[in-house]
Amino acid sequence: MKTKRELIIDLLKKNTDGLTIIEISNILKISRNTVAVVLAELKGAALIRIRLVGRAKLNYWKGAK
Questions:
Q1: Domains in the chain and their CATH numbers?
Q2: What distance in Å separates the CA atoms of residue 65 and residue 53, rounded to the nearest whole number?
Q3: pTM score
Q4: Are the C-beta atoms of residues 1 and 41 closer than 8 Å to each other?
């Protein structure tokens, strides 16, 4: 079984238009807080980029393919 981190990475790789924390949470049925923690780890490792769109933050995969 994949970890939550792996599930989020797979989802970001498939959705090249970017996803918000709420969208990721709803798709994967994971709490928003857990998604936020994983995204913070990925951002710290420079594997994702975040773009502000209005009040929303879109998260994009930018890690090694």
A1: 4-61 (1.10.10.10)
A2: 25
A3: 0.92
A4: no
